[in-house]
Amino acid sequence: MSMCCSICGRLIEKKEDETPSGDWLEEALALKPKQKSTVFCQMCEAKLRKEADDSQKPRKPM
Fold first, then answer.
1. Spatial distance between the Cα atoms of 38 and 4, rounded to a whole number of angstroms
2. Average pLDDT for consecutive 10-residue bins of the chain (62 residues)?
3. Res 45: pLDDT
4. What are phi and psi of 11, to 5 degrees?
5. Rounded to whole angstroms, what are the CA distances from 46 to 2, 3, 14, 41?
């Protein structure tokens, strides 16, 4: 299954066996409305995490 990164548009190969399977999962997915999930490649995910860490204010010493 291939998907595209939401930020840079790179193709991401996702293996089928990474997701759990079973009858209960199929029923739950059938009841849940289809939503397009946001998918990020490893490089964009690392960039987002670094930006989030840098944006937090440093703690003031007491």
1. 9
2. 86 66 64 69 92 82 78
3. 93
4. -80, 130
5. 20, 18, 18, 9
Tokens of 41: 């490649």
Give the CA distances from residue 14 to residues 4, 20, 22, in Å, rounded to whole numbers and listed in that order.
10, 13, 19
What does the pLDDT read at residue 12? Answer: 86
Per-residue 3-state assignment (H helix, E strand, C coil) for the chain: CEEECCCCCCEEECCHHHCCCCHHHHHHHHHCCCCCCCCCCHHHHHHHHHHHHHHCCCCCCC
Q: State residue 18's pLDDT score.
A: 53
Residue 16 structure tokens: 């089928």
Residue 13 β-bridge partners: 2
Q: What is the pTM of this model?
A: 0.53
